[in-house]
Amino acid sequence: MAEKKISRRSLLGLDLNRSYNTSNLNPEWPTPKVASIYKKYLQEKLPVYQPDPTIEIPKKLNIPQSNRSLPRVDWNEAAAAHLLKRILPAPRYEEIQLISQQSLDEALAQILEDQPLPEPPGSWVTEAPPEWDTLSEDEILALLDTYNERMFSLIDWWIMRMTQTPVSITESMALFWHDHFATSHSKVFYPQAMFEQNQVIREHGLGNFKTLLRKITFGPAMMIWLDTHGSKKRHPNENFGRELLELFTLGVDNYTQEDIEEASRAFTGYVTNGLLTNYDFNTQVGWGVWWDDWHDFDEKTFLGQTGNWTGDEIINIILEQSETSLFLCEKIYKWYVYETVDENIVSEMANILVENDYEIRPVLEFLFSTEYFYDSALRGSKIRNPISVIQGTVRQFDLSESTFPDQFFLQIYHFLGMLPLEPPDVSGWAGYRTWINSISLPIRKLLSTSFIDGNSPLGQLDDTIDVIAFANSMYNPDESQFASVQMVRKCSLLLFGVPLSETMEADLLSVLLDGAEPYDWFINAPENNGQWNRFRDMLRFMMKKPEFQLS
Amino acid sequence: MKRRDFIKSSIALSLLGKQVPLFAYNRAKYTLQRSTQWDTDRIVVLIKLNGGNDGLNTIIPTNNDVYYEKRPNLAINPSDTIMISDEMGFHPSMSPVISLYQNEKMGIIHGVGYPDPNLSHFRSSDIWVTGSNSNEHWNTGWLGRLFQLEYPDFPDNSPEFPLAIQFKSANLLEFQMDGTNAGNMVFDPEVMYQIVTGNYVPSDNDPPPQTAGGDELSFIREVDLNTFEYSGIIYDSAINGTTTVDYPNSNISTQLALTSKLISGGLNTPVYRLSQSGYDTHANQLGTHAELLSDVCEAVQAFITDMENQGLQDRVLVMTTSEFGRRVEDNYSNGTDHGTSGPMMIFGSQAQSGFFGNQPDLSNLDQNENLLNQFDFRQLYSTLITDWFGLSQDVAETVFQSPFETIPFIRSPLSTIKPIPVASTFKIEPAFPNPFNPATQIRYHLPKKSSVTIRVLDGKGCELKSYLQGVLQEGDHTFILQGNDLSSGLYFLQVESGGNALTQKVTLLK
Predict the structure, then answer these.
(1) Beta-carbon-side half-sphere exposure of residue A14 (alpha carbons within 13 Å)
(2) A361 — phi, psi (to 5°)?
(3) A246 and chain B: CB distance < 8 Å anywhere?
(4) Contact between chains at B206 and A10 (C-beta distance less than 8 A)
(5) Any chain B CB within 8 A of the CB of A196?
(6) Based on the domain organization, do A183 and A287 belong to the same domain?
(7) What φ, ψ does residue B455 adopt, rounded to 5°?
(8) What is the pLDDT of residues A52-110, one digit of tens each?
(9) Is the distance from CB of B217 to CB of A546 less than 8 angstroms?
(10) Does the distance separating the beta carbons of A440 and B230 come in below 8 Å?
(11) Which of A89, A387, B74, B133 could bridge across to A392 with cysteines, CB 3.0–4.6 Å?
């Protein structure tokens, strides 16, 4: 029998978080006919990643050995860099300088300030769903194309918000809440529903968790995503009830299967068309014939409390539980500090959350003011997520106004497993060490370094890193060190999570100088001077180092 | 040769012109001695049916009224199933594996779960991959611990091949060892080889700081070095390997096709973990479930054929797993909610064919209206450790922190030293094959010398035949039932010894 060749395309179809999970689609949403057309449509829509790598021989190095102790903790450039690396994809040098020159209180006030809501990606965000039954198959397919483009433009829009963000925690918290209430566009189907959810986490991400939870729960996206839409009394769907308790509030093992069933009874009778719902935020109940016919008005016993609970009342009971504040603060801690939680800090955060009636901002204000947060033991202890690595590089090297090949970032995040609006499942991204493995690590290096020479596996880039401008943004003629030494130290402050060791400093200098002396490297060297290529070599070298993956 | 020595002498020298320095910072030193040489070339391919496969709509209890009462919207009619006995049938989408079943290359283990089941996907998956009890939270995987026992100095001193290959991009807890992970993710070996070697910068002896940041740095350096070292052998295997059948166009097929290539190319990795997503069928289950079963069955059938064409059939066993089964009763979204135990399937020339355990009892459910389990999943894994990989019972017991009785689903078990029975009791093992034609055998164990009578009863319990075995010695004995003069149907095989009788249900299919 002849050998069957496995094509690259078929290999790329492997489950690397890049293919749409079409098997969890609801085959009746928005109508059975549209669902069946849509499923086939999505299956053919897989973004394909075709790397065209070139083999580079790593430079030969001659590196001495040494040890080095950690620097002292204080509010200084290093501490400011630590804070900014945790709340931005990656900071620029001048941002670190500006923040470090303010007091910590001033800096936090700026970072935690509300940002104005951005312009939506299009007027379609409030477009009513069509009468599907009146459309032909061709018309449906055309509309699916439109929806697909809108969804992509929404993702691109968000990625650009993250890249162009001022020094503010808003985008990072929006991503945190998206990871927390992880919702996938492929099942939700309507881009306007995904936009609505994004508005909610943006508007309330630093505000009140009660409001946020209610807006998410009764928003069209969540109602579709976890099957609250259409759940009826007597045999309610348990999907939302379970994840509400397990993933959104109490955490696993803090409730029983009966609690899930009773909660699910309360979340019946709520429906949506993808844009509007039958939930009234003023009366906090549903309305209309679905509510009357499908909602379970009978008595339920949830977490020991008995009554004719509605969905809202279930949420109120959940928020009375101390487990909820602890669970939330543990997640915030893991997002901003480290994977192994410190119980003292987390319980203090939880106290502050409850004392402030579930306002989120005071919790962050507390966390970022503690000496603990800046402890040297925690520097570089966060493994960067793909958005931090890629968008961080774009932001850090001032490429955020550049244009990129069509669907450039969408394909990268499909590939690296962190496409916004398409998390792997309702538990969000597993994060931490799962980001790094034998596929993702080399691909991260390949993609980061492609911003230096412009040869990306996804197409030629219009702009590459302007190394002269970048060097000048860091250089300070008033400092006593040679420009070369300044470059090495400031680049590692920006690009490496852990403090620069003497060995590493020597390594970097030897790449940058390539045999020359430290005083031979000039900040004012002309563009065609070979020393700028050495500078590019050093950036490439740094991006290939494990230290680059930490913040 | 030690793997790192090998690497140093070949790839590193030729590519870099210098040695790759070794890292040994913060690495736990294991005190456990290697108990057995892992010297078999057997391979297990584990496929996770991700989301919780609905066992009752996989192996359908066609003559069970409770099933049809509780699933008004989802039950599969007997006429639609592929009947394999008078009481059960396969889901119609499983037709691709019927030939495997008929040729005795497929076994089904009913009711696999664990005590005090947890209905959360994430918790239940963790229990399955760590092998803990449901009230324990372990942070290493059962395979990670197994590898660690066999290769205590991993990754400094480890085999020349990756211990485990996976096709999911996240690191799997199942392969998590103490401080390092044995899983290697693979997609396109040729492209990856180029990317990996082109982007590797050798590290110096630059100790990471003694901080949390330093711990994470050590972890990433470890992955970096491992990736660099293993990309070569995976690449070689993939270009030397071949496939001999046309694999269907599905995700799980692509995973199996690449698995076949790597095995065929000589990669000695003992464990492959594949997965197929989408089994969390809360709503509108029928079509989705049918497609999923169809995809996985087509893929497995192609893979087993491919292995046979290449003469690899006795080295490779396929086993499905799933974090739980689903609720007996369907929900009003035309789906099923999270359940407990479910059937696991094994495929291959070395899979003992037939059924282990019984169809689940639908009238005897737990407090959440879920199925009771018949086998613990750790029994399956213990069987893989001992009977498939030929490691001792002690190893399996160390991995799971307690002994689990094996299930005889490996045709030629490698385990040579049988464990000494702790408390010897009179017992019988499930008949094989079952259903049967023309003959089936049943093994029984006598705690002491005694006389034995074996009877064949019909479905109503009336005695049809009686075989006097006489006085037998203490120990294991086998009885073979010839079905030549019986007609198709259900029978009870009863073994009586010293006033005790044990009975086993068998089905003759003519």
Answers:
(1) 25
(2) -55, -45
(3) yes
(4) no
(5) no
(6) yes
(7) -120, 150
(8) 323 333 233 332 322 232 233 478 999 999 999 999 999 999 999 999 999 898 999 99
(9) yes
(10) no
(11) A89
pLDDT at B142: 97
* Residue A536 token pair: 């590019």
| pLDDT tens track for B83-108 | 998 889 999 999 999 999 999 999 99
A65 touches chain B (CB under 8 A): yes
Please count the CA atoms within 13 angstroms of the CA of A158 that sit on its side-chain side.
28
> Tell me, what CATH number does B489's domain have?
2.60.40.1930
* DSSP element (H, E) containing B253: helix B251-264
Q: How far is residue B472's CA from residue B449's CA, in Å, rounded to a whole number?
A: 6
Q: Which of A362, A378, A394 is the last residue of a domain?
A: A378
Whether residues B436 and B357 share a domain: the answer is no
Task: Looking at the structure, tell me whether residues B349 and B490 fall in a common domain.
Answer: no
Residue of A438, A448, A508 best to disrupt the B interface, most CBs of B under 10 A: A438
A293, pLDDT greater than 80: yes
Residue written as tokens 């093994």? B443
Q: How many domains does chain B have?
A: 2
pLDDT of the residue at B111: 95
Closest to A379 (Cβ–Cβ): which among B171, B194, B213? B213
CA-based nearest distance B375→chain A, Å: 23
**Could you identify the residue written with the tokens 């003629």?**
A477
B155 CA: distance to closest CA in chain A (Å): 14
Q: In what order do the strands lie in the sheet with B439-446?
A: B427-428, B439-446, B475-482
- At B169 the pLDDT is 59
Interface with chain A: mutation pick from B22, B169, B279, highest number of A CBs within 10 Å = B169
* Residue in A3, A9, A15, A550 to test binding to B, most B beta-carbons within 10 Å: A15
Which residues from chain B sit within 8 angstroms of residue A501, using beta carbons? 206-207, 209
List, as ranges, residues 421-440 from A with C-beta within 8 Å of B. 425, 427, 430, 433-434, 436-440
- Per the CB < 8 Å rule, is B206 touching A51? no
- What is the rounded CA–CA span in Å between residue A102 and residue A96? 10
> What element of type H or E holds B381?
helix B377-383
Using one digit for the tens of pLDDT, what is the confidence trace for A501-528? 999 999 999 999 988 899 999 999 999 9
Among residues B352, B375, B398, the one where a domain terminates is: B375
Alpha helices in B19-134 (DSSP H): 65-70, 98-102, 121-130
DSSP class per residue in A465-520: --HHHHHHHH--TTSSS-HHHHHHHHHHHHH-SSPPPHHHHHHHHHHHHTTS-GGG
Whether residue A342 is found in the same domain as residue A304: no
ipTM of the shown complex? 0.89
Looking at the structure, tell me whether residues B432 and B501 fall in a common domain.
yes
Kindly report, residue by residue over B315-360, the tens digit of the pLDDT: 999 999 999 999 999 988 899 999 999 999 999 999 999 899 998 9
Mean pLDDT score, B234-263: 92
Do A241 and A105 share a domain, yes or no? no
- Statement to judge: residues A196 and A284 lie in one domain: yes
For position A51, what pLDDT does the model report? 32
The pLDDT of A347-371, averaged and rounded, is 95
3-state secondary structure string across A215-254? HHHCCHHHHHHCCCCCCCCCCCCCHHHHHHHHHHHCCCCC
pLDDT digits over A395-410, tens only? Answer: 999 999 999 988 889 8
Instruction: For residue A436, give the nearest of B223, B287, B333 by CB distance.
Output: B223
Same domain, B171 and B259: yes
Same domain flag for B443 and B300: no
pLDDT of residue B48: 95
In a domain, A224, yes or no: yes
Lowest mean pLDDT among A68-77, A329-338, A394-403, B200-209: A68-77
Residue A58's pLDDT is what? Answer: 29
B241 chain-A contacts, CB cut-off 8 A: none
For A16-25, A484-493, A506-515, B362-371, which range has the lowest pLDDT when averaged over its residues? A16-25
